Amino acid sequence: MSTTLFRTIQPNHFTLLTNALLRTRRTSRHISVRCQTSTTTQQSSSQQQQPRTSAPKNHGSNKLDEILKDYEAVIGIETHVQLSTSTKAFCSCPNSYGSHPNTSICPVCMGLPGALPVLSSKVVDFGVRLGLALNCSLSLKSKFDRKQYFYPDLPKGYQISQFDVPIASGGYVDVDIPLEFGGGHRRFGITRVHMEEDAGKLLHSDAGDYSQAMIVSKLDLVDLNRAGVPLLEIVSEPDIRSGVEAAEYGSEMQRIVRYLGVSNGNMQEGSLRCDVNISIRPIGQAEFGTKVEIKNLNAFSAMSRAIDYEITRQALLYNQGQADQIVTETRLWDEGAQKTVTMRKKEGLADYRYFPEPDLPEVIFTQEYVDSIRASLPELPEAKRRRYEAMGLGIQDVLFLANDVSVAEYFDEVIGKGADVKSAANWLMSDIAAYLKNEELSISDVKLTPQELAELIAAIKDETISGKIGKQILFELLAKGGTVQGMIKEKDLVQASSCYFPQNCITDPVEIEKMIMKVISESPKQLEQYRSGKTKLQGFFTGQVMKMSKGKANPALLNKILLEKLNAKD
Amino acid sequence: MLSTLQPPRSLTLLPFRRFHGSKTIASLASSSPTLDASSVSPPQSQILTTRRSLLSGETTASEIAKSYLSRIRLTEPQLKCFLHVSENVLKEAQEIDQRISRGEGVGPLAGVVIGVKDNICTEGMPSTAASRILEHYRPPFDATAVKKIKEMGGIVVGKTNMDEFGMGSTTEASAFQVTANPWDLTRVPGGSSGGSAAAVAANQCMVSLGSDTGGSVRQPASFCGVVGLKPTYGRVSRFGLMAYASSLDVIGCFGSTVADAGMLLHAVSGYDRFDSTSSKQDVPEFESQSLSMDSFESKPLKGVRVGLIRETLEEGVDSGVRSATQEAASHLEALGCLVTEVSLPSFSLGLPAYYVIASSESSSNLSRYDGVRYGNQVMADELNKLYECSRGQGFGGEVKMRILMGTYALSAGYYDAYYKRAQQVRTLIRKDFKAALDHNDILISPAAPSAAYKIGEKKDDPLAMYAGDIMTVNVNLAGLPAIVLPCGLVEGGPSGLPVGLQMIGAAFDEETLLKVGHIFEQTLKGSGFVPPTLPNVA
């Protein structure tokens, strides 16, 4: 069905290519695959003009809900995580995203005759880390296999992967569903985690659309920079039931790989790719329905919408007695049209002719090695969330703080300095989050250290400074850095902050009352005006008392007593 | 000039020291070996001779190189051993001479003229595995074995012909030319390393590299009357060897003496970080095994336990081969060995298991030749056509057949019946060898069921050709080292055809093979297997 059109591939382009590349990496070179313009009949570009819809039309939402409630979706997700190792999996080429095409290649990842793969130990390391993080059991002895198929982006004609003995299997992951999506806690099974290598990329010189796997361009280019980059593939159990759950599962994978530092988890760069397998069945039915695969999901929100669209599509077909039109196929999520479209239909099962990779020895490691990695694991998102929850934070706070590993680490440092938990959470979630959003920065970019945020929170708490002043200082500290103490001195924020140095502070209510009484008695005119309604004059009295106390009176106490006196009907 | 090139594997074509007439064949078979040097002095290491004569100033590397080049020029039209002869031979030789004249050190292979099988990558030199699909392909890197040779001063004289990608036993499956056997130009040199074996036999080079997946070094060594050494799997890095069957492939060595094969092996052996299947086992100095005959005791191999594999002398083996093997056994006994018959019950299972495993792996290994990045491509309107045409026109018949067989064996539903079963047989064969080698230091057998046969004789009967691999494939399945060395002649050709004896050792015990092989060779009456004059050359 997929009729990718290729015409010529320039002979001997390669020799020049490799030789040149072994010497200079400056020029960008492509391996070219020239194609004829497609003459097939798939319409694709017109679909982009269609309005956004989240579900097939012609069905009132009530009626749709009525139909949907009779069906249950069964969803499993395959997640490919591109590892942030410094080299590729089986050669020493740098693993760098965004280099000029074909500048990070060598005989091994180009699949030249005679080249052999040599496994980077870092890949195993990361595999064990992720396996442990997903509560899997590790295979102390696993192996690599070859998955064989032909495609121009696959230099060797096979992908080095793991087939029947993955490095990790039988785990689970816990997620919290955000409140706005109903909340609750869910556990999804992890079938397996295995190591494999990425393929290269086909670049299409014309702005051709290939939503139907049609390569509708005149010249297709192969970029092998990505070929051989290490991947971990995580296969979930079919435990997921909705788009929201799937998105949350995906987000959790992203959090976990980022917490572990095994990947940047960036979906736009393709460092994290999710393929969804989805079928639906009438509620109560034990057998699975026909499975459809959805690819090209570049964001979790897209994943959620794609799944909901697909559930609706399949439910309607069931409902209309056309269940036989749900076929085993791969569908692409068309972000423009907000729908899934057929990419290729699978005629029977693909036979990848897996067999053990004879160029690589078995991957063998010891329990001690696993234990040492386990000991080095950071606190993972789920543990963090439960800890934050136990500290008394609400679930929304918890989810916000634990979402981003650098925010969570920052928060942990702030509260580690003794800051009030709730205040620290509030600052991070409101003002600091807003600042970051406005400035398009991440928490690691700000100048405010966790130490100083803790100081700031303490200063407000013990009423050295007001919350209002605190905010002013905060933005300065975020942008410029410095210390809370220095800022208070520098800005002469002394008025409200004489008590910053506790030893100088006048906190004796009797003494303060004395001063107040003295000021009141010396200012009968102002008192009369105040009592006749000019309450703004409270500031005058406060100022006078402060002056008398040389700024040392505790402002809160002062104001409290002052109000009592001013309002007293004597 | 030529006389400086001891040993006396004369470079002149006439008069040629013939081995013996057919009369002598019978006498060899019936004569008991003796430790006395026969009328023909035992062969001497060309590597050691070269080293000696270069360092003593007796000759120069340039002179040696020139003589080999002219020898190649003279004999190539008949033999067709080489697919490519290097343009840099003289330049490299001159560099060695300059180093020597400046008093600088030279490597242990300085001036040694070496042929390299065409499936072993040589930087900037065509490396095609004798396949149309890689015609004109020049790799950007040297295979590790080649790199080592060059570092030790060896001169790669050219790329030798072979069966395409190593698939064949006659070198007739080369996409480019058919190599003739120097003993009889109407016969095959064996294969797949036929070019490397014939080139050494015809003295076109001193030693050569081949590769052995199921006997591709040993069988042509037998057919051409030279020494062929298949090391333990993992002894020599496979980096730069174009894979046929990765779990069986090894780079092997040809020489006109056991010592030469051993020294070449020593040069190319060792762990390589670019091949994770290469072994970290120590590489012994094989040179020390090549003692001179004078130092031999009366029973130099006293106590060496030799197992003659019973199954290799059963029906299907030519009587001449059988008697030569039995004679060799007697010779070993005379040298002090304890020769007994051993049985390998799984022996006959090896051949089918080998063809399943080798074909399966090759179907995968040859997937990279898709016409996309390098090699010959055929224009096509769509992708599948591009693959079909490039591969269809790029690969020869034998290669296609094995790809098809391998693809079939690995297909869903057949995997268990073929590939998995074959792996089980492989385990069984390993076990049997292990048991036999627990009681013996080496095992012996013929290298092939017959001597060299006629060109074209088995071309249309692949099963008959495959059956010829029966003696050798088991050794690859078990990953063991083996050496083949000439042990006699049978009738055929203008002056008889050589027959090789195979000695199989325990894993990583090439040392014993080389020791036994060397003493066997040096004491064999009438040794000095020099092919007859090449017609029309003299």
TrEMBL record, chain A:
Keywords: ATP-binding, Chloroplast, Ligase, Mitochondrion, Nucleotide-binding, Plastid, Protein biosynthesis. The keyword Mitochondrion applies. It catalyses: L-glutamyl-tRNA(Gln) + L-glutamine + ATP + H2O = L-glutaminyl-tRNA(Gln) + L-glutamate + ADP + phosphate + H(+). Residues 32-62 are annotated as: Disordered. InterPro entries: Asn/Gln-tRNA_amidoTrfase_suB/E, Asn/Gln-tRNA_Trfase_suB/E_cat, Asn/Gln_amidotransferase, Asn/Gln_tRNA_amidoTrase-B-like, GatB, GatB_Yqey_C_2, Gln-tRNA_amidoTrfase_suB_CS, Gln_synth/guanido_kin_cat_dom. SMART domains: GatB_Yqey (SM00845). Coiled coil: none annotated. Residues 51-61 have a biased composition (Polar residues). It is found in: Mitochondrion; Plastid, Chloroplast. Its EC number is 6.3.5.-. Residues 409-566 form the Asn/Gln amidotransferase domain. Its main location: mitochondrion. The keyword Isomerase does not apply. It comes from the Eukaryota. It is an enzyme of class 6 (ligase). Residues 36-50 have a biased composition (Low complexity). Subunit of the heterotrimeric GatCAB amidotransferase (AdT) complex, composed of A, B and C subunits. HAMAP family: GatB. Allows the formation of correctly charged Gln-tRNA(Gln) through the transamidation of misacylated Glu-tRNA(Gln) in chloroplasts and mitochondria. The reaction takes place in the presence of glutamine and ATP through an activated gamma-phospho-Glu-tRNA(Gln). Belongs to the GatB/GatE family. GatB subfamily. This is Glutamyl-tRNA(Gln) amidotransferase subunit B, chloroplastic/mitochondrial. It comes from Brassica napus (Rape).
UniProtKB/TrEMBL annotation, chain B:
The active site is at residues 117, 192, 216. It is found in: Mitochondrion; Plastid, Chloroplast stroma. Its main location: mitochondrion. This is Glutamyl-tRNA(Gln) amidotransferase subunit A, chloroplastic/mitochondrial. Subunit of the heterotrimeric GatCAB amidotransferase (AdT) complex, composed of A, B and C subunits. Gene3D superfamilies: Amidase signature (AS) domain (3.90.1300.10). Residues 63-514 form the Amidase domain. PROSITE patterns: AMIDASES. This protein may be expected to contain an N-terminal transit peptide but none has been predicted. Keywords: ATP-binding, Chloroplast, Ligase, Mitochondrion, Nucleotide-binding, Plastid, Protein biosynthesis. HAMAP family: GatA. It catalyses: L-glutamyl-tRNA(Gln) + L-glutamine + ATP + H2O = L-glutaminyl-tRNA(Gln) + L-glutamate + ADP + phosphate + H(+). InterPro entries: Amidase, Amidase_CS, Amidase_dom, AS_sf, GatA. It comes from the Eukaryota. Its EC number is 6.3.5.7. The keyword Nucleotide-binding applies. SUPFAM superfamilies: Amidase signature (AS) enzymes. Belongs to the amidase family. GatA subfamily. The gene is GATA. Allows the formation of correctly charged Gln-tRNA(Gln) through the transamidation of misacylated Glu-tRNA(Gln) in chloroplasts and mitochondria. The reaction takes place in the presence of glutamine and ATP through an activated gamma-phospho-Glu-tRNA(Gln).
